[in-house]
Inverse folding.
């Protein structure tokens, strides 16, 4: 058993704390305390102030930790419990690292724990930190194999950097080529992060709640031209059910696709890719109208994409949209009934209004929509902070408060249309988004959440109408942040974000950071979505031979470089004196004069003085200086010798070397 | 433990070792090249592979690309460390210099000179003879190092320490690079000196009377002489020294007329080794007293003389008695 040197023990401490740091945000308090106390004990032992702990002390600690873990993680068996257990083990091991084997266990477990940190944070900063952490752990690993008598702290660090520097290109090659397969077994995810986003039901005030947040909803890139703002309707859910209070998804049929919904279009599909943030809900977004479901999801009866599993981490998917379409030109009686459903006897005044419009317009459904728009435009106010509604809510909104947000307008219009006998539904999703010109992608945030209406016409299918556009047309043509900039309720939960809007350069910085994050999400965190395309771009055609070449060629190149640097001998940092002397001797060698292996500097200088009379003075000075250094041991002797060597070299340069 | 960790025994490893030693001619100076360096992962290296596998499982099951990246980075380190470990041994020059004689049961020292490859460091090199204790050293600031590597001397005669094992696990302990060198070094192992009460008197050649040891009575004491370098400590007049009068040597009346012979024939008891041990003890004793002594072994006669040369001659003759003459 090899004992650890003191330097190695300190390196273990550094590696341990660096590994612990990213987990501090979620670890139970007592575990953090333990992780600080045990290295403290080790330091006291290290400095010789405390003796090694008795076995009973260790036993008590182990039992206490087991008890603590059992109490803290009563039901959870997720990664948090596992990582806590590993960290507790590390903290306990900290007390008794004496031997090489103890340190090995500590460092290997630390490497695994530093990998688990990515389950909690995945930002660029986290990745950089993990790299730093790895430098420390590898240095700690090197320190236990270093000469125990060597008290050089920096040496392991340098070795670690040299190893990592060459491992990076190898990592890059593996990262690009290694095939990504799905999970081998299902694992419990970290559920403690509450996400904001659309919910599967809408009370009229719900969407205005979302405008208080500037959390990212998703980002999208397009294969063709980006659609204009008026066409950026991202559908996420279709609410067909109304219970007099909230709109919700149709319980029968909407969660399952019973039959294909007919979608007819002559337009070319617009292909795009979405990087969707974790929401812990299964619904995705798709640009009106999705022609096919993204991978891992299906299209509901309302033609909205629904994933088989909740989005528990950031995902990316490809889809395509038909901007010009006819959706479901024929409606079955079953569906017709669903989209005409209204709660018994509610909101009599609204029903009355709809029936009056119906009588005045005859069979012209579009005229009824126009009448509603005119009404909204003339007498309604669009606001983020509408008054609370109660009782017959549609009546209260249409005839009393007349203030509302997109949810109110969409709900009320659908109610009116259904009352007039027109099948209609509320569609919830996002509208608009911020286009990043530089990186060519669209950022959609929670405050872009929106609700609109689709009504059905024979042969034309579902027609999208946005009653909000009648009240506040700028909501559709402008970005939400510009529109609401003066509204106190907008971004009320994130005051810092509000500040940023006021300032042009702040906005620019924010955009750049956002663009960087987007590239990070797209190319690193969701690389599996890009892998095939990238490999195709790189290789032309993806086959096994080319993949093997893509892996082997860079691999061999890197290894050859490492071998060349490691084995070819790097230049040791040398004494300037030695270097100057070598240069001078090389100069003489070029002119055909070599110093004999046993010839002293003095003897050589004297010999050269006879062959190079022009520089005899300098050579004599050199001989004298050399003698002074060797025999007189004068403190300034080396400096004088260096000067003499340099003087000789300058004199030598004036003599031409034979061609 | 992985088999690269095992010390060579009568197994595949031993056969491999013998084969690898025989591949190269015996040479006093050997430069370690890729032809004679072997490298395999250690137990810790295999543990590291298990860790990589666990991290890969984590990455796959959580579809976490950063965990993938960490796994691949560590895999890169694993691969790059092969070259670092190899480079820590390659280019090293090992010169076998000499074997230092010893008495049976002691440790024979073998001196080796290690020279670093130009502009490269060698750290934590471990050298040992088969079954011996390893010596670990660094070649960083010093470019050349003199090492004395001991080997147990269990038998009298020429000691062949076997092939020299040079190995290293630097820098991360994931790999072990090693080589075996047949240095051709040998050391002479003298019989172990064992004191016996008195050497029997031996019959001189040609009838001359010979006494084994002459007792030193006070009548033989002649006087004191100033201590000179190389003088025997047994003859130092310690009482005089204690009086603060400086170091002096006691001078005795020489045993000039009598020759001392250590005669094999006069040792009657004991085995060959016991006899040799006894002769050895007395040879050293006479050497220390600076009395000339001769040796008579079956088939070998060394005329009486004193001094270091005689000591070495006698001890060598004793060491090789009954052994095949090797040089």
């Amino acid at each position: 058993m090899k004992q650890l040197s003191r330097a190695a023990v300190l390196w273990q401490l550094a590696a341990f704390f660096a590994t612990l740091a990213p987990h501090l945000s979620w670890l139970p308090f007592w575990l953090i305390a333990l992780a600080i106390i045990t290295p403290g004990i080790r330091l006291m032992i290290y400095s010789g102030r405390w003796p090694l702990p008795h076995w009973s002390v260790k036993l008590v600690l182990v039992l206490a930790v087991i008890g603590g873990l059992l109490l803290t993680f009563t039901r959870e068996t997720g990664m948090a419990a596992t990582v806590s257990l590993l960290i507790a083990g590390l903290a306990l091991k900290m007390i008794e690292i004496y031997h090489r084997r103890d340190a090995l266990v500590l460092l290997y477990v630390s490497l695994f724990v530093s990998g688990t940190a990515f389950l909690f944070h995945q930002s660029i900063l986290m990745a950089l930190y993990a790299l730093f952490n790895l430098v420390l752990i590898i240095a700690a690993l090197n320190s236990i194999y270093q000469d125990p008598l060597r008290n050089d702290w920096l040496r392991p660090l340098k070795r670690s950097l040299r190893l990592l520097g060459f491992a990076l290109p190898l990592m890059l090659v593996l990262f690009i080529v290694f095939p990504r397969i799905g999970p081998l077994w299902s694992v419990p995810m970290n559920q403690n992060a509450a996400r904001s986003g659309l919910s599967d039901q809408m009370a009229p005030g719900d969407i205005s709640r979302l405008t208080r947040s500037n959390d990212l909803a998703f980002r999208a890139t397009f294969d063709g031209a980006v659609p204009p703002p008026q066409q950026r309707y991202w559908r996420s859910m279709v609410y067909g059910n109304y219970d007099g209070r909230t709109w919700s998804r149709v319980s029968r049929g909407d969660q399952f696709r019973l039959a294909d919904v007919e979608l007819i279009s002559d337009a070319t599909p617009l292909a795009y890719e979405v990087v969707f943030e974790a929401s812990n809900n299964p619904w995705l977004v798709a640009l009106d109208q999705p022609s096919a479901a993204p991978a891992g999801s299906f299209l509901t009866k309302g033609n909205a994409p629904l994933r088989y599993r909740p989005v528990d981490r950031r995902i990316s998917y490809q889809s395509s949209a038909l901007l010009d379409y006819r959706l479901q030109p024929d409606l079955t009686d079953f569906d017709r009934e669903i989209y005409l459903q209204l709660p018994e006897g509610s909101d009599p005044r609204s029903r009355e209004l709809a029936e009056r419009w119906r009588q005045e317009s005859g069979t012209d459904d579009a005229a009824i929509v126009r009448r509603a728009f005119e009404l909204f435009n003339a007498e309604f106010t669009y606001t983020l902070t509408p008054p609370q509604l109660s009782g017959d809510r549609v009546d209260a909104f249409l005839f009393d408060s007349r203030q509302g947000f997109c949810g109110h307008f969409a709900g009320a219009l659908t109610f009116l249309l259904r009352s007039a006998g027109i099948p209609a539904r509320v569609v919830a999703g996002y509208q608009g988004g911020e286009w990043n010109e530089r990186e060519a992608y669209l950022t959609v945030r929670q405050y872009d959440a929106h609700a609109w209406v689709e009504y059905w016409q024979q042969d034309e299918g579902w027609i999208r109408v946005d009653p909000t556009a009648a009240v506040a047309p700028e909501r559709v043509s402008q970005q939400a942040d510009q529109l609401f900039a003066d509204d106190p309720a907008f971004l009320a939960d994130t005051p810092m974000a509000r500040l940023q809007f006021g300032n042009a350069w702040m906005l620019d910085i924010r955009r750049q950071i956002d663009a960087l994050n987007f590239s990070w999400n797209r190319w690193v965190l969701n690389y599996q979505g890009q892998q095939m395309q990238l490999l195709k771009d790189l290789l032309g055609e993806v086959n096994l031979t080319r993949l093997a070449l893509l892996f082997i060629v860079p691999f061999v190149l890197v290894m050859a470089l490492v071998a060349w640097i490691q084995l070819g001998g790097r230049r040791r940092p040398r004494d300037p004196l030695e270097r100057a002397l070598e240069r001078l001797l090389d100069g003489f060698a070029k002119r055909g004069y070599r110093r004999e292996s046993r010839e002293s500097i003095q003897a050589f200088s004297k010999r050269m003085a006879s062959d190079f009379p022009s520089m005899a003075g300098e050579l004599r000075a050199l001989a004298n200086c050399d003698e002074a250094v060797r025999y007189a041991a004068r403190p300034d002797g080396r400096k004088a010798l260096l000067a003499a060597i340099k003087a000789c070299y300058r004199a030598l340069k004036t003599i031409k070397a034979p061609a | 433990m992985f088999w690269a960790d095992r010390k060579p025994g009568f197994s595949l490893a031993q056969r491999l070792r013998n084969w690898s030693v025989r591949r190269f001619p015996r040479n006093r100076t050997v430069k370690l090249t890729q032809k004679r360096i072997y490298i395999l992962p250690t137990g810790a290296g295999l543990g590291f592979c298990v860790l990589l596998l666990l991290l890969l499982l984590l990455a796959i099951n959580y579809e976490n690309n950063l965990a993938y990246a960490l796994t691949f980075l560590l895999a890169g380190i694993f691969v790059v460390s092969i070259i670092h470990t190899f480079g820590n041994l390659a280019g090293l020059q090992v010169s076998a210099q000499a074997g230092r004689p010893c008495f049976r049961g002691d440790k024979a020292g073998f001196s080796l000179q290690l020279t670093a490859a130009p502009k490269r460091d060698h750290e934590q090199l471990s050298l040992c003879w088969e079954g011996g204790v390893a010596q670990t050293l660094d070649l960083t600031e010093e470019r050349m190092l003199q090492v004395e590597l001991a080997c147990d001397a269990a038998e009298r005669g020429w000691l062949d320490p076997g092939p020299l094992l040079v190995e290293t696990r630097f820098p991360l302990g994931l790999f072990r690079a090693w080589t075996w060198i047949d240095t051709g070094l040998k050391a002479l192992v003298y019989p172990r000196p064992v004191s016996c009460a008195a050497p029997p008197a031996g019959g001189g050649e040609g009838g001359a009377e010979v006494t084994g040891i002459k007792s030193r009575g006070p009548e033989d004491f002649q006087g004191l002489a100033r201590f000179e370098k190389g003088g025997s400590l047994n003859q130092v007049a310690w009482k005089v020294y204690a009086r603060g009068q400086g170091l002096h040597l006691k001078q005795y009346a020489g045993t000039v007329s009598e020759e001392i012979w250590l005669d094999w024939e006069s040792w009657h008891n004991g085995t060959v080794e016991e006899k040799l041990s006894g002769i050895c003890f007395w040879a050293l004793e006479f050497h220390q007293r600076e009395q000339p002594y001769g040796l008579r072994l079956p088939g070998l006669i060394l005329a009486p003389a004193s001094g270091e040369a005689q000591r070495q001659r006698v001890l060598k003759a004793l060491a090789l008695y009954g052994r095949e003459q090797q040089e």
Observations:
- The first helix of chain B runs from residue 12 to 22.
- Confidence is low (pLDDT under 50) at residues 202-219 of chain B.
